[in-house]
Amino acid sequence: TARGLDDYIYVLGAHAKNIMRSGRPVIGVLADGPLVAELEIRSSAPGCSVLIRRISLVAGRKEVYLSDLLDKQQVYPKHEAVYLGFPFAVGHGVIRYDEPWSIIRLGRDQLKWAHKNSFTENRWVDVSNHRIGVTWAGISAPMFDVGRITSVTIEHGQPSPRHVVGGSTIYSYVMNNYWRTNYRAFQCGMAVFHYVLRPHRVFSRAAAQRFGLDTQQPLVTALIAPHAKSFAPLLTVTPASVLVEACHPNQHGTLAVRLFNAGRHNATVHLMAGYAGKAVLFHTGLFGHHPQELAGPLVLAPLQFATLQVKFK
Question: How much of the chain is in helix, strand and coil states, percent to nearest 5?
């Protein structure tokens, strides 16, 4: 099992019993300012020339930001795999993860003979019980194991487990050299993996979906003059359960906006222009033909999405 947060786990050979971990760490402070605090942990690691892990906190934010830089050595012809472990103290936790337009409860929303070794999330994985939980985003590593390392067994002809292994530990499955057909037989060089953790109380699927969207579409910053006038966003969308999945100009001179209701209840959407003017909404047909102006409020059912064209007057 994982010994601590962001635990480096190296599996050499065809069995999860052959586990090795990183060496003694050297911890340094990279930032200690009023806005950002950041630690850097350097250590030796089997299969790597160097392992550098960074943990960052931002003032006013609940999230914990982690990054792992691996200078991976070439290992061939031996089998190997690399995992990063995230054990969470969430008793009797339910594992949920998102797929496009849906949320999966691990072990409950799967077919009887579905694959139960490793899983792939779209944007996030959540571990929570009726009181507390944490939402985890593997930004650049979409595969994970739960409870204990099990994905190593299926690649070597051992039967897949019929039931999901229980537990509140997430193992990010970042690399292996198991497949030698149509793939390079080894992985080496610099690799960086980013993660974001967000603790919470009662699980909210709307909050989890918004968190996942934020991690995949980070804030874009730009330098401005010290005394520049403040400006309003182009559009404001309410309620908070309605997410903007996409927003871009199109050939009609309007703005194409895709909205998704991630909440559990019907949502009456209010979309307002961020400056003097009015936003007129046109509903786009199935293939984008013959958009018609909306005569009344837009109501989205739970898990429903709609693509609109917005024209400013």
Answer: 5, 45, 50
Smallest CA-to-CA distance from 16 within 158, 136, 142 is with: 158
Residue 48's CB is within 10 A of a number of other CB atoms, namely: 21
The pLDDT of residue 294 is 76
Contact 84, 8 (CB under 8 A): yes
Query: What contacts 48, CB < 8 A, 6 or more positions away?
Result: 70, 71, 72, 73
Q: Helix (H) and strand (E) counts for the chain?
A: 2, 23
CA angle 199, 127, 70 (to 5 degrees): 80
At 164-205, the pLDDT tens digits run 877 899 999 999 888 767 777 788 899 999 999 999 999 999
The reply to whether the predicted model has a pTM over 0.85 is yes
Q: Where are the beta strands (DSSP E) in 59-155?
A: 64-72, 80-87, 94-99, 102-105, 119-120, 125-128, 133-138, 143-146
Which among 76, 243, 77, 68 is positioned nearest to 140, based on CA atoms?
68
Cα 277 versus chain centre, distance = 36
Q: Strand 292-293 vs strand 36-45: parallel, antiparallel, or unpaired? A: unpaired
* Cβ atoms 232, 99 nearer than 8 A: no
Cα(4)–Cα(17) distance, rounded to whole angstroms?
18
**Rounded average pLDDT over 146-154:** 76
Phi/psi at 213 (5° precision): -65, -40
